[in-house]
Amino acid sequence: MKVLVIQPKIGMGDMIIYLPYIHAISKTYKNSVSLLVKDNSRAKELLSDDEYIKEILFLDRTKNKLGSHDGIKGFFQLAKEIKSKNFDKVFIFNSSLRYLLIAKFAGIKNIAQYPLFRKNDNIVTSAKIFTENELGVIVSTQPILNLKKKKIESFSDKINKDFKHICLGISASGPTKRWGVENYISLCEKINNIIPCKFYLAGGKNDQKLINNILNSSIGPHCISFSNLKISDTLPIIKNCNLYIGNDTGWLHIASALKVKCIALFVDSPVMAYGKYSKFISVIIPEGETEETTTHDTLGKEKISFEKTYNKVLELLN
After folding, report:
1. Is residue 159's pLDDT more than 90?
2. If you average pLDDT over residues 106-120, what whole number do you get?
């Protein structure tokens, strides 16, 4: 049976969060599946070693509505592309009528989809309930990012075992979601004073200013930037790290899926959606907030306890 999974959310983090459900579908049907995702999900780089993924198809829809799959013309173009693949079944992780109609126009007879027109949901809860109801099996929320052993060992053989290796997730989707870079510098200085460390700065070209602030600081000589690396090239490095410390960003979810212990600083995003699905994530929230009240518009980056974060680092490194 040829199975298509449609996952139209943007970003690396959401792509990672859907992995348990994609894997469960593949295991149930005993065949690798095709994915329809947006290019900025970075699925091609993240999932190149994933045996449960047969192929990755790209959904070209943009904010300015100029993508090849936008509008009426794009609707029929996408339906045509999907129809050429002759899928027997589709799982649609979205509530839009558009995707339901596209699947029908593409000639897919067996369609499973979220309830139509649902607006607000918990990304993890919705995906878990939907998948379990469709497959009739219990699905863990813990994602697993599969990497070939030789890739992991290629970096493991190079690292200095006299140091602890820490991935720093200094970027985020907006300034209100980022703990100040000066806090990371102070934290790294304090950690490095008692535990020799190497720090890996997880960020891209758009984060170069943040990265430069750290590289030009006293901790700079102990840091390596990811800004000139492909996402796929960073995965073996992160896998070999002892710890992730950082904001709620795609790098956090990558690290947790690579089974790296993570300290996640939630300052302006929902903990209950993005911080509780993985046993590898320990959350730090703003003083005066609870996990339930820490959500969008919390604006709590000035209320993260430095000492609490530092003590959690020592706990997990030891």
Report:
1. no
2. 94
